[in-house]
Amino acid sequence: MRVGVLTGGGDCPGLNAVIRGVVRKGVQEYGYAFTGFRDGWRGPLEGDTVRLDIAAVRGILPRGGTILGSSRTNPLQQENGIRRIKESLAKEEIDALVAIGGEDTLGVAARLADVYGVQVVGVPKTIDNDLSATDYTFGFDTAVNIATEAIDRLHTTAESHMRVLVVEVMGRHAGWIALHSGLAGGANVILIPEQRFDVDQVCAWVTSRFKASYAPIVVVAEGAMPKDGDLVLKDESLDSFGHVRLSGIGEWLAKQIERRTGKEARTTVLGHIQRGGTPSAFDRWLATRFGLHAIEAVHDGDFGTMVALRGTDIVRVPLSEATSKLKTVDPRLYAEVGVFFG
Ligand code: F6P
């Protein structure tokens, strides 16, 4: 049996741990051979492959990024995309494919499995933690740790100058990184995409924090929106899955705060720092287990499924179900954290 492996979408810490888990168990326990495809769906589209064996996965567990490369290539948008993928899988004599990705990559995997009969098993990844079928995606814990450390550091410089520091974190549709890092880092305001915010209320929290002789830290997810405004975009371009490039809400908010409160406000945009570097111990653990269970699903012939974390168990769910709904922050959970605002 020959198994293809690809990593698609935005990279995230733990991808290499999955690849290692898949290959180690596949070779050692089942005697499988592997082919890596480069840069997500671009690999099978263009027949771009890379050697993938035990030697290739040695030493990669603690390394961020992905040894296979990644891209946001959408084969459904390419001329004869599906036919080209099927032809390159046939040429490489691939019997099954392990696709590691977020909603976009796995959405393509679900279509390939359900409509075109390709034997695919999915592994969920995204630092945003917004896939509904799994309790956690790997990469999220690392991103939260990085953002929390940044907030810890920003407290001391904010207090030295008695100014507002606005921290913009990733989170396109869901505010999980903002919520977890904001709570762990003791932020005074946390703004998430799921709930539109009132700039006057934010300014009231900022002012009350100064009254207590502390400098406020405002954590804002890149997808957060003011009540009477819109998403703040980096530019007008769309990626091949139709997503806009976000970023800028932090800068916009800092200006509003300065104008309305008269207090100096600065912005830190954490950006891709949240996605880079070595995965946390939790992400290495989760990613490795996902890899081991994904190859087991291949061995069982349980295609069209995705591995997922439920409690402490790894389960399998239909790929189509896994990608049909986003996991967003429950308003009750957000309200719970509100006691620390201001
Ligand atoms: O999808 C995960 C994510 O981290 C989003 O939060 C963010 O908008 C996006 O990736 C940015 O990715 P890139 O700069 O690679 O397009």
Automatic annotation (TrEMBL):
Cofactor: Mg(2+)
Catalytic activity: beta-D-fructose 6-phosphate + diphosphate = beta-D-fructose 1,6-bisphosphate + phosphate + H(+)
Record-listed Mg(2+) binding positions: 103
Compartment(s): Cytoplasm
Active-site positions on this chain: 128 (proton acceptor)
InterPro entries reported for this sequence: ATP_PFK, ATP_PFK_prok-type, Phosphofructokinase_CS, Phosphofructokinase_dom, Phosphofructokinase_III, PKF_sf
Enzyme class: transferase
Record has Ligase as a keyword: no
Pathway entry: Carbohydrate degradation; glycolysis; D-glyceraldehyde 3-phosphate and glycerone phosphate from D-glucose: step 3/4
Binding site for substrate: 126-128, 163, 170-172, 222, 266, 272-275
Cross-referenced PROSITE patterns: PHOSPHOFRUCTOKINASE
UniProt EC number: 2.7.1.90
Positions marked as site (Important for catalytic activity): 125
Domain (Phosphofructokinase): residue spans on this chain: 2-298
Binding site for diphosphate: 10
The keyword Nucleotidyltransferase belongs to this UniProt entry's keyword annotation: no
Coiled-coil intervals: none
Site, Important for catalytic activity and substrate specificity: residue positions: 104
Major place of residence: cytoplasm
Complex formation: Homodimer or homotetramer.
Job of this protein: Catalyzes the phosphorylation of D-fructose 6-phosphate, the first committing step of glycolysis. Uses inorganic phosphate (PPi) as phosphoryl donor instead of ATP like common ATP-dependent phosphofructokinases (ATP-PFKs), which renders the reaction reversible, and can thus function both in glycolysis and gluconeogenesis. Consistently, PPi-PFK can replace the enzymes of both the forward (ATP-PFK) and reverse (fructose-bisphosphatase (FBPase)) reactions.
Family according to the record: Belongs to the phosphofructokinase type A (PFKA) family. Mixed-substrate PFK group III subfamily.
Protein's name in the database: Pyrophosphate--fructose 6-phosphate 1-phosphotransferase
Organism: Streptomyces macrolidinus
Taxonomic placement: Bacteria, Bacillati, Actinomycetota, Actinomycetes, Kitasatosporales
Gene name for this UniProt entry: pfp
